[in-house]
Amino acid sequence: MRAARVVLVVVGALGLAFGGYLMVDTVALRRLPGVALWIGAAIVLHDAVISPLVFGLGVLTRRAGHRLAGAIIVTVQAAIVLGSLMTLIVLPAIAAQGLGPKNPTILPLDYARNLGLFWLTLAVASALISVWLYVRTRRANQRPSRIQS
Q1: Residue 143, φ and ψ in degrees, nearest 5
Q2: Do 94 and 111 form a contact (C-beta atoms < 8 A)?
């Protein structure tokens, strides 16, 4: 297990180093402050919005009682994290559309509507998965045990 962790850390560090190299090599020097601002905003959004939201929903689902399986809580939290990350990725395109691009073919889609549809699909999918997990857990708990005493 220790070797796997070392490999993962090394691969992650190499990925970060390669990404840093690509950023410095491909992004114009005058644009680096904008990139730094975006990275800083992503950190603030994560620490001020996403993490407290996921933590709060975890607390609320735990308070819902011990009737909920851990897999249901993980499903809801994963949906929130995925939706938040997609929002973080799409927000610059939505902001650029609001400014009005000089070339209308650069941002041709309705990114705000598509983000809303993504959140709706994510909510429906996580609800269906949660219901399926709940039903499966209830059925497993109602079956008589094979072990005879």
Answers
A1: -70, 140
A2: yes
Distances in whole angstroms, Cα of residue 78 to Cα of each of 5, 45, 57, 65: 23, 17, 11, 20
**Token pair for residue 35?**
């990139």
* Amino acid sitting at position 109: L
Domain locations along the chain? 32-142
Query: What would the two tokens of residue 131 be?
Result: 């219901």
pLDDT digits (tens, 9 = 90+) for 69-127: 788 888 888 898 899 889 988 988 898 888 877 777 888 889 999 999 999 999 999 99
- Spell out a b/e string for 96-130, using b for 16 or more CB atoms within 10 Å of the CB, else e: ebeeeeeeeeeeeeebeeebeeebeebeeebeebb
- CA dist., res. 70 & res. 137, Å (int): 10
